[in-house]
Write a structure and sequence with these properties.
By secondary structure, this protein is of the alpha+beta class. It has one domain (3-110): Beta-Lactamase, CATH 3.30.450. It has helices at residues 3-16, 49-62, and strands spanning 21-27, 30-37, 40-48, 74-80, 83-91, 97-103.
Length: 117
């Protein structure tokens, strides 16, 4: 599957479910992708280390983060459609990199209606 298509599909699912975060977690020589929603954490996919590295590097490049830096924590931001995304990476002792993507939603849809007061 092409990287851009995979990323687009992942963000479409995440925003459709109103996920607040997407996690790329290295576990047992594979990457687990999980999404946090108001219902809890759900597994999205398990992918190879090679595919995960390509996706993470593509997102880091889009967010103007240092693609070659895998050990130090980094943060960046990028837009997907109308959604601002905040990216955060951190490396582990084995040289693997984890990524968290925070999806920022419009406050209008999450405001409480206090007209009854």
């Amino acid at each position: 599957m092409k990287i851009d298509k995979y990323i687009k599909e992942m963000f479409t699912v995440a925003t459709g479910n109103r996920s607040s975060d997407i996690y790329f977690l290295c576990q047992n020589r594979k990457y687990q992708i999980v999404m946090r929603t108001n219902k809890g954490i759900t597994e999205y996919d398990t992918i190879s280390m090679n595919l995960a590295s390509q996706i993470i590097n593509s997102l880091k490049y889009s967010a103007e983060m240092a693609v070659s830096e895998k050990r130090r924590p980094q943060t960046g931001k990028v837009f997907w459609r109308d959604y601002p995304l905040r990216l955060s990476t951190v490396g582990d002792v084995n040289g693997n990199e984890s990524l968290v993507i925070r999806i920022i939603y419009d406050n209008e849809s999450s405001k409480l209606n206090f007209q009854w007061l």
